[in-house]
Amino acid sequence: MIIVKDLSVEAGIRRLVDAATFALHPGDKVGLVGSNGAGKSTLLRTLAGRLEPVEGVIARSGSIGYLSQEAALPELDHPLATALERVLAAREIGAVQQAMEDTRRKMETAESAVREQLIGRFSRLEADFEVRGGYRAEAEARRVAASVGLGDAELAQPIVTMSGGQRRRVELARILFAETDTLLLDEPTNHLDLDAKGWLFRYLAEYSGALLVISHDLPLLDESITSVLALEQGRLEPYRGNYGHYLAERQRRRELRIRERRIQDLKITQLEDNVRRFKGGSEKLARRAKSMQTRADRIKGQLVDVGSVGRRVAMQFPQPEPSGRIPLQAAGLAKAFGDNVVFVDVDVHVERGERVLIIGLNGAGKTTLLRVLAGQEPADLGEVEVGHRVSLGYYAQEHESIDPDATVLEHMRMASTEPDRMLRAVLGHFLLADKIDQHAGTLSGGEKTKLALAQLVVGRHNVLLLDEPTNNLDPQAKEALLGAIRVYQGTVVMVSHDTDFVGALMPDRAVLMPEGQVTFFDESLLDLVALA
């Protein structure tokens, strides 16, 4: 349970939430909505205790599970902790299991006298593990992990070797396995395939604790929540019902405020017209004029705020200089991380102006292949050949290239030598003009996505390598990105699990991972996109 009174939250010099008061009770399922940059993620971090509020009080009771939007490497009990150990640690049995495994390894090489001591230690640890429900809990942890798309091979993998998407799924499994009283989830469906999303929807619908969730996945908001908190211009406004009801009710309230404001404006106009007529007349008329002006001023002080219609992202990739006919190709690519062989003998052939989609299940190596093609990751075998007059622009799904300590404008300068005036104009199209002096580390996930896309725009590349570019974007920004790619005359190689986005774009060809099979894209492949 969380109770909030007069809460104010800031990021940098911006006040994101002002004097908010609300409560989360057991059984409440609340969607936190608002445009990118409104402050949703910052508010959630504050409720979780990761940030201190500027003003106000937050009272918490019971255990809280918090899923951050970021996929940063978590603090680990030891450097080579596996995904399973990380999940089990949510119930404080991961450390016992790790001690058992360390002891077992030592037993294999120890001398007889020492081995006897280690056997005794292993027996005591195993007894402790069983008392804590270890084997039963491990089976449950594996079930939860499998439900969010983590198989046995991934659970045995050290977290430090995992991709950002895999780490996010590990953290989601850990939080759900912990059986907390309150869940604070920031974009929980990112990196989940269709089956995992369906399981999560059902889990959240049946969850008995308090839930506050941020998501651009509209089905999640419609199926799993019973009320909405809308964050607009620093104010939180509550709505009963799911996301669909919120959209209709928000429009109804806005129309009501507009009508009330029109009545107020009309009344002010009538009063001030009479003031102008009467103030030059007799003393009696002058007193009446003064009284009318007082009434008009009182109404002006109580004007209904109709709210502004949200600004829209405007996105356009400049038409680039043409590359050679074959801008990108690779032969015999292979990549492994330790014992985890990601893919072997993959060939890629991309022609100028093509839209190529890399498809595969979670863990099939889609992001790894894109990173190899972009030169961000070396191939263990094979070669990548960049064609004549090619300028590569790479968008990383976890924003690895964004420096949290550099300002927004400094990032644009890193990507282009254009004058600041032009860079500021591009940032304005991405609704980031008021954040140019803000450190990138204080941006929301959606704002980081927009900044990374703005860097691609000013880079004037003729080949774009995009890894889940729609993650964290609100629907309007996603629509703007789709329109920009459609008219872009360069070459695009993309990884995306967004079925609607891919279906609207309709790529030319697909590379099916991990085999590397190449096929022409058609609508039948959208089912596989949904499973990615």
Task: Summarize the structure in words.
The protein is an alpha/beta fold. The chain has a domain at 328-531: P-loop containing nucleotide triphosphate hydrolases (Rossmann fold), CATH 3.40.50.300. The protein has helices at residues 40-47, 83-88, 94-109, 112-131, 134-147, 152-155, 164-177, 194-206, 218-224, 243-278, 283-300, 366-374, 408-415, 420-429, 445-459, 475-487, 499-505, 526-531, and strands at residues 2-11, 14-24, 29-33, 55-60, 64-67, 182-186, 210-214, 227-232, 235-240, 328-337, 340-350, 355-359, 381-386, 392-395, 463-467, 491-495, 509-512, 517-520. The strands form four sheets. It has a six-stranded mixed sheet, with helices on both faces. A six-stranded mixed sheet has the order 14-15-16-12-17-18. A three-stranded antiparallel sheet has the order 2-1-4, covered by helices on one side. Strand 6, helix 8 (194-206) and strand 7 (210-214) form a beta-alpha-beta unit. It starts with a strand and ends with a helix.
